[in-house]
Design a protein that fits this description.
By secondary structure, this protein is α+β, with helices and mostly antiparallel strands. The chain has 17 helices and 40 strands. Helix 5 packs across helix 6. The longest helix has 23 residues.
């Protein structure tokens, strides 16, 4: 077996590979840029080599720098992770020429299947049904518009070397095709060093289902069943699960066998993924093959018991697969929620900064399932603007789909992240969504269910009553604490009352509390009572409670006369007042928010790529005003209404913070 491998990547996937290598007794070498000098993967590896400046184009995707690190450390093999150089045939070829083993497929297979245009041509020649599109390269925006018109809108503009949603746009008309072509081209060049673009028909109601394949150098090829990846936003997967709630056994078998046949046709070895779109009648169409490990591979590992990274290493070393197709059964159900540094309350715009608190749920077996968290960050670390915004991949397993969802609910509610904007509330809300729970999902789920963006989850009445009972019981604990002040006079002892009014999410609950050493019984005005038990003490940011027999995990913060309570995607201000305080609070005036309607504010920390207008210009609703780049993505800021530019407060190349002024209007 290899004695030392280098991981040509960063973040959570580098940490993931290091864990398996460590388990196998293999030493590891990390590489890092300026921004990652103190990153977790650097701390975990046995050795670490600095490879350049913070932008990936000056470090992680520079082949010569990776090759120099290999030579300096004597690494025998390289695991590329995903993204960066993982599907770069030139990198694989350079390793082969240097006598270093690439822990992935042969360079010929990468060339054949890693390029989206070539892979579609090969699939068509093999008789595989593919989505209609233009397979050739596109010279400029004018040609892109012409091709899009011929195919028929809507169309998908995609980077040939793309992945992870980078370099991808949907266009519904000529203007969006022209604009999307240029942005996709820019993103592709920045992320992959390859700005080739192609266009295909956008299927409006598909499911995105992919098949995991694994092949060795001895002629054995198997599929490890499927992953449902339909919960996507801006073409970026957010929640994945295995198996799919939609496929039947016959379709699963047909898709798996077709995926294996395609892998054999190109001499594929190692782990790879064949992606399909599947319509409502379970007809499936080949999209592309990812010649690398997928981000969402943990859910496959959880339902099959196979460590895919270990098998990739063993295959690269020349070992045969230790199992056959009939050995690979589906055991239970697994869910994965991607935790991104994106603010759901600001239309999921990137958020960077320091993780002032990062406490994931405890990994391992629970009473009813399994919790796993793949991450590349730690408390006190920073989220950089230079790379993609993933913080962690939270996974759960249970015997059933409903059980896996419930495990995920609790895990999300106990996951503490502070200091940056993040999408924990959003994925928590999806877990509670009736349509998601039913399994009736498509890639349009987020656009259809959250057409105006995410404003926070609205909890059901029964959940609100449990939260109200929890808040009342917690408030009593806090009040008791406040009465126990040393040095007070005997005749000045304050008594904690039993009657309270709990206000939350536009509802009010008059309650009476009967406390005892084991907990509290909270009785509502209609006579119903809920028993609340917990070991929470004031100041703890996470409360675990049992309310009316239901386990609850709530993130807790103090506000005047109550708590900020976060659970199941909701962010609630919960006030607990005496009846007199409640009556007086109703007389208080609300503070008005400042008027920012005359300004274009920077919605995220980022770099100004371009300003499209000048002082005196009259702008129309929907007109592009400026482009901001953050985390390898270009974000076009558009006018919300007509107006005249009074002042330009920023220029191309400027680095701005959230809410910095870009433009002022008359």
């Amino acid at each position: 077996m290899f004695k030392k491998i280098l991981i040509a990547n960063r973040g959570e996937i580098a940490c993931r590979v290091i864990k398996t290598a460590r388990k196998m007794g293999i030493k590891t070498v990390a590489v890092y840029s300026d921004a990652d000098r103190n990153a977790l993967h650097v701390l975990m590896a046995d050795e670490a080599v600095h490879i350049g400046a913070s932008p990936a184009a000056q470090s992680y995707i520079v082949i010569d720098k990776i090759m120099a690190a290999i030579k300096a450390t004597g690494a025998e093999a390289v695991h590329p992770g995903y993204g960066f150089l993982s599907e770069n045939m030139n990198f694989a070829a350079a390793l082969e020429a240097a006598g270093v083993v690439f822990i992935g497929p042969p360079s010929g297979a990468i060339e054949a299947m890693g390029d989206k245009i070539t892979s579609k041509k090969l699939a068509m020649e093999a008789g595989v049904s593919t989505v209609p599109g233009h397979m050739g390269l596109i010279a400029d925006a004018d040609e892109a518009v012409k091709i899009a018109t011929q195919i028929g809108y809507p169309v998908m503009i995609k980077a040939s070397a793309g992945g992870g949603g980078k370099g991808m746009r949907i266009a519904w008309n000529d203007a969006e095709a022209r604009e999307g072509f240029q942005s996709s081209k820019n993103e592709a060049a920045a992320s992959f060093g390859d700005d080739r673009i192609f266009i295909e028909k956008f299927v409006t109601q598909p499911r995105h289902i992919e098949i995991q394949v694994l092949a060795d150098k001895h002629g054995n090829t198997v599929y490890l069943h499927e992953r449902e990846c339909s919960i996507q936003r801006r073409n970026q997967k957010v929640i994945e699960e295995a198996p799919s709630p939609f496929l039947d056994a016959a379709t699963r078998k047909a898709m798996g066998e077709q995926a294996c046949a395609l892998a054999r046709a190109v001499g594929y070895t190692s782990a790879g993924t064949v992606e399909f779109i599947v319509d409502g009648n379970r007809n499936f169409y080949f999209l592309e093959m990812n010649t690398r490990l997928q981000v969402e591979h943990p859910v496959t590992e959880l339902i099959t018991g196979v460590d895919l990274v270990e098998q990739m290493i063993r295959v690269a070393y020349g070992e045969a697969l230790p199992f056959r197709q009939d050995d690979l059964k589906i055991n239970g159900w697994a869910m994965e929620s991607r935790l991104y540094a994106e603010d759901p309350y600001r239309n999921f715009l990137p958020s960077i900064g320091r993780l002032t608190r990062y406490r994931p749920p405890v990994e391992g077996a629970t009473a009813t399932g399994i919790v796993r968290n793949d991450t590349g960050v730690f408390e006190g670390g920073e989220i950089s603007m230079f790379y993609d915004p993933m913080i962690a991949k939270l996974c759960t397993w249970a015997p059933t789909r409903a059980g896996a969802i419930e495990e995920m609910r609790i895990a999300l509610d106990t996951f503490e992240v502070e200091g940056i904007g993040h999408n924990l509330p959003f994925v928590g809300a999806v877990m509670d969504h009736p349509r998601f729970q039913s399994g009736n999902i498509t890639t349009a789920f987020i656009a259809e269910e959250y057409p105006d963006g995410f404003k926070g989850a609205v909890l059901t009445d029964d959940v609100l009553r449990r939260v109200a009972a929890a808040a009342a019981a917690m408030n009593r604990v806090a009040e008791i604490r406040r009465t126990r002040i040393s040095g007070t006079m005997d005749n000045h002892t304050r008594r904690v009352g039993d009657d309270w009014v709990v206000s939350l999410q536009g509802t009010e609950h008059a309650v009476k509390i009967d406390a005892d050493p084991e907990g509290s019984t909270v009785t509502f005005a209609d006579g119903t009572a809920m028993r609340v038990t917990s070991d929470w003490t004031p100041g703890q940011p996470l409360a675990r409670l049992t309310v009316d027999g239901v386990l609850m995990a709530v993130k807790v913060g103090k506000i005047p006369m109550g708590f900020r309570m976060r659970l199941r995607g909701a962010d609630l201000k919960v006030h607990v007042r005496t009846p007199r305080q409640h009556a007086l609070a109703g007389l208080m005036l609300e503070k008005a928010a400042p008027d920012t309607s005359k300004y274009l504010l920077c919605p995220m920390p980022g770099l100004i790529v371009r300003i499209n207008v000048e002082v005196g210009d009259e702008v129309q609703e929907g007109q592009a005003l400026a482009t901001v780049e953050a985390m390898k993505m270009e974000n076009i800021l558009k006018a919300e209404r007509r107006g005249v530019v009074k002042a330009v407060k920023a220029s191309a190349g400027a680095s701005l913070r959230v809410d910095d002024v870009i433009l002022e209007f008359e």
